[in-house]
Amino acid sequence: MKNRNTKQKQMILDTLKKDHNHPTIQELFEQIVAQEEVGQATVYRNMSRMVEEGLVNKIAMPNGVDRYDADLSNHYHLVCRKCGRLMDIFDDKLPERLMKIEKDKHIQIDNTSILLEGICSDCLKKEE
Amino acid sequence: MKNRNTKQKQMILDTLKKDHNHPTIQELFEQIVAQEEVGQATVYRNMSRMVEEGLVNKIAMPNGVDRYDADLSNHYHLVCRKCGRLMDIFDDKLPERLMKIEKDKHIQIDNTSILLEGICSDCLKKEE
DNA sequence: ATAATTATTGAGAACAGTTATCAATAAAGG
DNA sequence: CCTTTATTGATAACTGTTCTCAATAATTAT
Q1: CATH topology of domain B76-127
Q2: How far apart are CA A34 and CA A19, in angstroms?
Q3: What's the pTM value of the predicted model, to 2 decimals?
Q4: What is the CATH number of domain B2-69?
Q5: Residues B11 and B38 sit within 8 Å (Cβ to Cβ)
Q6: What's residue A71's pLDDT?
Q7: How many CB pairs under 8 A join A and B?
Q8: Which of B43, B41, B53, B40 lies closest to B14, judged by CA?
Q9: Residue B44 CA to C18 C1' — how many Å?
Q10: How many helices (H) and strands (E) does chain B have?
Q11: Of A40, A46, B6, B55, which residue is 20 to 30 A from B102 by alpha carbon distance?
């Protein structure tokens, strides 16, 4: 008798799945509270549990608060220092290289987080 | 008349350079205070400035407090979930791949942080 | 169905790490 | 030296997160 399904938990996951902007917990909380009564402790609790369960990914940000991502596909992120957005970066060769490292260095890699800091393509275009 | 040299600032940088365990600010503070009078606000202030100046790297940890690194060479990190240590990972092919991504995606990458989570070679050996 | 059990919730207190405040100190330059 | 002003140290304030605990509600047993 563990890990019950509650409407709050479902609401939190649904909200994150719809939000493709890698929201913080506070941002998630605001969206959810607008639709339904939820305590923010509940959002914190469920988020960390869902991260443990692998339902959701946490993105540790260099200067600030963690962000969350319901997209579990193998991808990376770029935080743009112009517009501040966190963009998805997909690349199929990077995982191969990481597997090579895993073998060469005799380590076991369970999770990879790659955070690039720089300027996104949109902002680069505008600069010209 | 900006950016003066103080003995505190020097002390902080020296201490970080000697500590190869990617200490947190609190850990740094304890080491420094043992030798000399320093306020912890001073350590916080100088660390964030030194990160801005590029003298030092900040490592955003997934579950917890940021760690710092005075080794500016191009390398990555593995946090071991057995021993908890943060190990350096050097690989010369990864930067090439990232430069390829930079070109392909039309983005500008100023900084790359790669944090692998898993088990270090020492702990893997012990497990057998 | 109904009752019993217990995981989950919500509100707020507590906590940890970090930043801001401000008078005192001490670098840097004249 | 003397002046200027960046930096320091102590502490208060702040922010994001976790903890506490009684109330609630999801599951299991009756």
Answers
A1: Dna Ligase; domain 1 (3.30.1490)
A2: 14
A3: 0.89
A4: 1.10.10.10
A5: yes
A6: 96
A7: 107
A8: B43
A9: 8
A10: 5, 5
A11: B55
Interface contact flag, B91 A97, Cβ < 8 Å: yes
CATH 3.30.1490.190 range(s) for chain A read 76-127
Token couple for B35: 């030798």
CA of A6 to C1' of C2 (A): 22
Please, are residues A56 and A68 in contact by the beta-carbon 8 Å criterion?
Answer: yes
Contacts of B91 in chain A (CB under 8 A): 97, 101
HSE value, Cβ hemisphere, 13 Å, CA-based, for A110: 12
Range scoring the smallest mean pLDDT among A81-85, A121-125, B53-57, B63-67: B63-67
Residue A1 has pLDDT above 60, yes or no: no
The predicted-structure confidence for B79-93, as pLDDT tens digits, reads as follows 999 999 999 999 999
In chain A, CATH 1.10.10.10 covers 2-69
CB-CB neighbours of A40 under 10 Å: 14
Does the pLDDT at position B2 exceed 80? no
